[in-house]
Amino acid sequence: MSTCRLSVNLNKVALIRNARGANFPNLLQVALDCEKFGAEGITVHPRPDQRHIRYDDIPELRGKIATEFNIEGNPTPEFMDLLRKYPSDQVTLVPDAAQALTSDSGWDTLAFASFLQEVTEELKSLGTRVSIFVDPDPKMIEGAKKLGADRVELYTGPYAHEYKADRAAAIAPYVKAAEAAAAVGIELNAGHDLNLINLAYFKQNIPNLLEVSIGHALTVDALYMGFQNVIPLYKNCLR
What we know:
By secondary structure, this protein is an alpha/beta fold. Helices cover 46% and strands 17% of the residues.
């Protein structure tokens, strides 16, 4: 067991499935296989246009996944209705717009404190752990703690983008963010554009990291090497 859990995001698998209008590849079977190959969690991120994960995927996955089930998304009324019907192990609140190609920033936990606190309290009443997607800004992390979140997920897009040019500079804001999280007593996840090139260095410098969710890069690697081979490679980066 790795000290940091690997949660596999299935959005891109669902995108391939949806392209042909049938259940091929079978999303549930891929999820179960990923668990068999060592994934310690499954992540899905249904968006309003349902271009990859669909709302009707959730009940089937929720009933069969044996590891941790993490549902990401913007807490719209439709999203919250889904979570009331099918509470998950963890919900990661992400402020993506309806037309966003992918998540590209974290919450302002100060400006949206009242809204996020209300959502967080309801989700926790359902027995769900709440993680809030934030930029590596100590103030946003402190805000997440004050509103009652259990964890923050650091948006690692900028780290991944800057890694090749200067990895020490790229990791620096995340080290400060991790220190801020430890200081206020909130747990730490991370995700976005992490891959086999940059993941180990991130983990080495963020020792209190509990979980990463990875989808796009891991799925691309699996096209060449297969999930059975790729998942252990990612887990090795986390040791």
